[in-house]
Automatic annotation (TrEMBL):
Residues that span the membrane, as ranges: none
GO cellular component terms listed in the entry, alphabetical order: cell outer membrane
Name of one Pfam family that matches: Plug
Localisation per UniProt entry: Cell outer membrane
The name this protein goes by in its record: SusC/RagA family TonB-linked outer membrane protein
Membrane-related topology note: Multi-pass membrane protein
Main location: membrane
Amino acid sequence: MKRKNIQKFCTAVLALQMGFAGSLWAQEVEEVKVQPNQQMEYLIEEVAGKVVSKRTGESLEGVAVSYKDLSSTFTNSAGEFKLMVPSSSVTVALRIGDRLIKEYPLNGRTTVDVELSDLELAGAGKQFVQMAYGERPSAQVTGAMSAVDLTESWKNKANMPETSIQGTAAGVNMIRRSGTPGMGADVFIRGLGSLNAKTQPLVVVDGMIYDMNEYDGSIIEGYTSNPLSFIDIKDIDKVTFIKDGGSIYGTKGANGVILITTTRAKDLTTKIDFYTYGGVNIKPKNLPVMEAGEFRPYFTQMLASSGLHANEVINYRYLNDDPDTLGYYNYHNNTDWQNQVMNTTYDQNYFVKVTGGDNIASYALSVGHLKSESVMKGDDFSRTNMRFNADFQITEKLTAGTNVSFSYAVNNLHKYGYGVENISPLNLGLIKAPFLAPNIYDEAGVLSPNLYDVDSMGISNPSAVVENMQGENRRYRFFGSYNARYEFNDHFSIQSLFGLTIDKNRESFFIPDLGTPEEEGTNALVRNQIGGQVSRVFSSYSDSRFDYTNTFGFAHNLNVGLGFRYNKNKLEEDSGYAFNSGTDDLITLGSGVVTLNESYANVGDWIWMSYYADVTYNFLEKYYLDVTMSVDGSSRFGKDAEGGIGLFGHRFGVFPSVKGAWLVSSEDFMRNSPLDLLKLRLSYSQTGNDGIGDYRYLQTYQGSNVIANQGLVRANLANTAIQWETNTKLNAGVDLATANSIFAFSVDIYQNTVSDMLTYQPLKTTIGLDYFLANGGEMVNTGVDLGLSARVLDQDVKLTLAAQVGTYKNEVKELPYDQRTTQVAGGEVITKVGESASMFYGYQTEGVYSTSEEASTAGLMTTLPDGTLEAFGAGDVKFVDQNNDNVIDENDRTIIGDPNPDFYGGFSAHAEYKRFTFDAAFSFSVGNDLYNYVRQQMESMSGYENQLTSVRNRWRTEGQQTNMPRLAYGDPMGNSRFSDRWVEDGSYLRLKTLSVNYAIPVDGKIVKKIDVYASGQNLLTITNYLGHDPEFSYTSSVFGQGVDMGLPPQFASVMLGLKIGL
C-alpha cells in the first residue's frame, strides 16, 4: 500500500473516531491493521488521557492533541481524549487553536493525565525554540541553545533588548557598556572569540542579518553606537542564543548567534495594546572626595612639593581669609562638583501595538516613542520607532510575509573616558578644587550668572563644560524584508527572503573656549574645537532555500535543505574638524580657521556569499541527528589564502557541523519514570570569523598633512594570504525535567578552539610599519554552562525560581611571538602563550616604606625622568624586584590580574498571587579583576587635582604604618605607576529588576485587560569595588576588558506603568 493510501486510511479511522466522540466516548477505537507491504516494525498504539487545569483541577475541553500531521483529536467536555500513535514513546502536542501549548512526552505510557498551568495556557507557543530556519520543539533541539521569552518584559524599564536578556542565558556574558542610555552592552558568548577580529555575536532579526556596524567608530569619546537600540523591547517575541553551532552561518557565526523574533498576529481577532510608563532616575552616590577644608592643606603641601617657596605659597588667594581681599569670594567656597554634573532625571515611554487580520492576511503594527535621560546633566536618548509585520496566505500553496521597521534616534552626549579627562564632566566633578565656584562672584560677594573660566591649575570648569559643550548622535535606520514560500506538495517547498538595510549616522560635537584650557594643536594653540561625521551604510541581503520533508514508515523523519545567501554592503563615511572659531556662538565646521581644518573620508564595499545545506533526521523521535555545512566566500579574503577550497577564482571557507541527541526519556526502560525529559546531546561544529576588516589583502595608503603639505603614507601592507579565523566547537550536554517540569536542569561542557587567529606580526623598521595582520595564532576557551529552574510553589501562591551560570577558562595556545603587551589607559595588558588573553601586566607591591632605614635596607632604586637612578625612601611604595637587580624598571613587571570572571550569570524569581505578579532578576559576576584607572588618578597625589578621602592616610612622618604613599608633585619615584594597587576585585551581585503588577478586573466588553505596575532597576548592588560601578565595557576588544576609564555609571530607576488591552 502506498504512503498516500496509508494516510487516507489513517484519516478515515480518525474521522470515525471523532464522529463517535462525546456520548460514545467509552467505545473502543477500531484497531488499525497494518499491511505487510508497509514494512513497518512498530504497531500503532492507542493512548488515552485527560487534560485539566493545574490550578483549578477543572477539565479542559477543546484542547487539540496530536501527533504530527498524522493523528489528532480534541478533548471532550470531561477533558478526555484518545489518540492513535505509532509508539507510546513519542511526544504529542497540545494546542488551543493554532497555538502550541505544550509538548508532552509519553515515555512509554498509554494512559496519561496532563496538567496545564496558567502560565502554559497564557504562554502558548513558548515551548518552540527558534532555529536558523523555522522552529522546533524544545525536546528535539540537538545543540546548546537558550531561548528567552520577552513577551512580559514590558513590566520592566526595558528600553533595549540587552536590558531584558542579561543574565537569562547560561554562557552569555552580557556587560553593559555604561549608564549612558541607548549604549547597550557588549556580548561575549562562551569566552573570548578573537584577539584582533570581531568578538561580538551575529544578530539575526526575523531571518535577516542585522548589521551591528563594527566598522562605525564615534568621534565622541566614551560613546559606542548600538543598532539594537532601534528595536523596542515590546516588539520582540523571543530571543534565542545559538552557542555551540552557527555553522549554518559560516564565517558569520564564530562568536555565536542571537536570533531575534519580533511579534506577529497570533490570532485573527483585532487587538490594540497601549503601553506607557514614567519614571525617575536616581543620581548615584558620590565618590568620597575631599571637601574644601581638607583640600586646602593638601593643596598647600602640593605647592610646596612642586618647589615653590613658602613666601610664594602664602600669596595664593585661597589662603587669604580676609573677605576684603580681591577675589576672596571666588576662592572660599565648598562646592560639591559631582552635584554640578549629575542630578536626578526622568524617563517616559509611549507605545501602541495593533494586531489582527483574517484568513488571508494578518498583521502587527506598532508605533513607539521613548525619552530616557541620563543622570549626567545634558545627556539623554530619544527614539521614535515604527514596525509593520504581515503574513499573507495568497493561495493554498503560496504564502508571503513582510517585516518593515524604521527608527529615528538621538543621543545628546558629552565626552568621557581616557584622553579627554579635562572635558569629561564625570572626571571634572571629581578633580576640580572644591574651594572654587561654578560662577563668578563680584567683590561684594554677589554671585553673577557668568561662568568661571578655566582655573589657574589648567582644570576646566565642570559647569561650563556641561552647559556649553555639545555632542549629538542622530541615527536613522530602515530595516525591511520580504519573504515568500511555495509548497509544491507535502514534501517539497521553496522559500526566499530579500531585505534591505539603510543606516545613516550623523554626529557632531563642540568644545567651547570658555571654561576649558587651550591645548597644543598640530599647527597652533586650540581654543575651541568643532567636529562632525556622517556615515551611510547600504546593505542588501537575500536568502533562498529549497526544502524536502518526509516521514518514512512513521519512524524515520527527514528534512533536507539547500540554500544560497548573498550580502552586499557599501559604506561612505566623511568627517571633519575645525578649530578656533571667532566665538563660542559659532559652532559649524565652516566657522573655524581655514588653515587648521582637517577632513577625512572612508569608503568601503564588501560582499559575503554562502552556499549551505542542512539535514535533520530523527528515528522514532528518540534519536536525532543534524548535519550542516556552509561554504562561504568574502571579498575580505586574500587570493592566496591557504584554507578552504577554490571556487570561481576565489577562496571559500568550508564549515561543517554534526549534532546528535538521544531522547532517553522516550525509551521503554524509562516507562513510569518521574522524568518528563532526559536528553543527551553531543555536537561538533566549525564556524568562521570574517570580521577581519576590509582591504587587508591590498597595500593601501592614506593622506597626511604635515605643516600644510599634503602627501601619502602607507597604511597597510598587502597580505594576499589573509583569510577567516576558524572556530572549532565541541559540546556535550544533558537536559532533564521532572514531571510537568516542576524541576528542570541543563548542563553543557564545551571547548572552543580558535585557529588561524589574526595576530599582529612584527616588521622590519625599514618598511615603515611596526606590524601587519596575518593568520597565525590559536586560542582555546573551555567551560561549563548550567541552567536550573524549579516551581517551588504551585497552589494559591505560585513561585518559580531560575538560575543561569556560566564559567570559562581562556588560554592562548600559539602566537608568532611569545608575548605582546598593549598599552591601555596608562596601564598594560599582556597576551602570552600559556595564559589568558589580555592579562593585567604591571608591578607587584608590598605596602609602603615606613622609615628611611627600611627603605635603605631594601636598597631598591628607580630611574628618574632625566635617566639618573634614585633610591626609594620613606613613604615610597615597596615594589617587588622580580629579577633581583635592585632596580625597579619594566623588567619587574608581571601578571597582576585577570579580567575574565570565574563564573557569571543571573537568577530570577517569579511569583503570582491572585491578580498580583512579582518578578525579580539578579545578575552577577565573580572573580573578575578590574583596573580602576579613575582611582589611580584620584590617589596618585602628584598634581593639583582633588583626590579621594582615602589620601588622608598618606604617609607623612617617619615610622607611620600605612599603605598610602607620600604626596609628591610629579610623582618622581613612580609610586602611582601601573601596579596591583589599582587592580581590584570586580565581583558584584546586582538586583537588576524588581517589579509588581496588578491586573485590574474588567468586564471584557471593550477593555479586555488593564495592568498597572511598578518597577525598579538597579536598586541594589553588592560589591567591594571602589569605583562608581563594577559593570562597564569601554570597548568590545579583548584588550580593553576590565578597564574603568570613567564612563557614566549605571543608576537606579523607579517607574510606574500602565498597559491597556482593547
